[in-house]
Amino acid sequence: MDFEKLYSERALSMRASEIRELLKISQQPEIISFAGGLPSPDSFPLDIIRKITKEILENDGEKALQYGPTEGLMELREIFAEYLKKDGITATYENVLVTVGSQEALDLTAKVFINKGDVVICGLPSYIGGINAYRAIQSRLEGIPLDNDGMAVSLLEDRIKELQKNGHTLKMIYIIPTFQNPAGVVLSEDRRKHLVEIAQKYHLIIVEDDPYSKLRFEGKSLKSIKTYDDNVLYLTTFSKILSPGFRVAFVVGPKEVIRKLVIAKQSTDLCGPVLPQLISYHFIKDNHVDKHIPLITKMYKRKKDIMMETMEQYFPPGIEWTHPQGGMFSWVRLPESINTMIMFQDALKEKVAYVHGAAFYVDGSGTNTMRLNFSNPSDEKIEEGIKRLAMVIKRNLK
């Protein structure tokens, strides 16, 4: 049977995640990988999780192994809404939806808001998972360049006017304002406020994707965009501060939007796994979150410093990279004569991997860039991997 003739338009437009495909290659044990966005396994609070899980199974095992509500467990939604107050976000359990990872949240926002051809504005570069979620729903993705202060919001309004003039329907701005993936930069406070003003003026939804703000190890914390406008859809996750394997994430938004997202989720997976939600609930209730985060950030600062120092020592002149104050990534810009997609095969020969930058651009640019992850490799592998990568870069410059 020729299935190609039977696939839907949306299925035909879907693309595999380049990061997921690269991970299949780079997870070979002999390869030092800077490719994935994986937390360090040393950051997992195994003893705490073991203790909490034992108590849950002994005292609440039947509930833990049963189906749960689509919205997520009530107790988790309530305690998470309370936890958000520390960050200046006002919410009740009715404003919170628990999702199976932030990727599901992105998929749900796409399904609920986007028609074929609607415009979604994102950063240049931007997170592949977000790009794929909105591309799969057949939106038109328009990129706004980034600099060291995040998305160049000053360029945004003129782009909106141009798109509207050409008859396009604009719906959404998708942004990762804090330790952006892949660039690692932070949207400045002034730009956050300006972004909200523009979104309100043109009746656009802001989807604020915030997986990394708790991973700040330098500098001053900034308020989330959500604190400036209750209509912002705020996405965050426990994948980076507890366990990515739990797939526990949250959408915080207006009650009517959450209700619509819940309906969309019912046709996707009906409900998320209950046991990880109960563990996450107790992790907050027993005050483990705020004690655990400093341990992670101390570890990641050390890893970041090792990467920065080794790049400074071994990378040839003419190479630029970001010096992140948090998160998991550094963004590297090479001379335009180098195509990092082509260079990747050369890197594999030296047993080192990265993600080529063009994967993060919706306009086909960024061919001379790459993303490096410092959170997952061991300290020793960071140093050795950067040495290998420097050798590959020097060879390709010649």
Task: Give a verbal description of the structure.
The protein is of the alpha/beta class and 398 residues long. The chain has two domains: 3-45 and 291-397, Aspartate Aminotransferase, domain 1 (Alpha-Beta Complex); 66-287, Type I PLP-dependent aspartate aminotransferase-like (Major domain) (Aspartate Aminotransferase, domain 2, 3-Layer(aba) Sandwich). Helix content is 42%, strand content 15%. The protein has 13 helices and 14 strands. It has helices at 9-13, 18-26, 46-64, 74-84, 101-113, 128-136, 156-165, 189-201, 255-266, 274-285, 289-314, 340-349, 379-397, and strands at residues 32-33, 96-100, 119-124, 140-147, 150-151, 170-175, 205-209, 233-237, 248-252, 320-321, 329-333, 352-353, 355-356, 369-373. The chain has an eight-stranded mixed β-sheet, sandwiched between helices. Helix 11 packs parallel to helix 13 (379-397). The longest helix is centred in the C-terminal third of the chain and has 26 residues, at 289-314. The protein is globular and about 60 Å long. The mean pLDDT is 94.
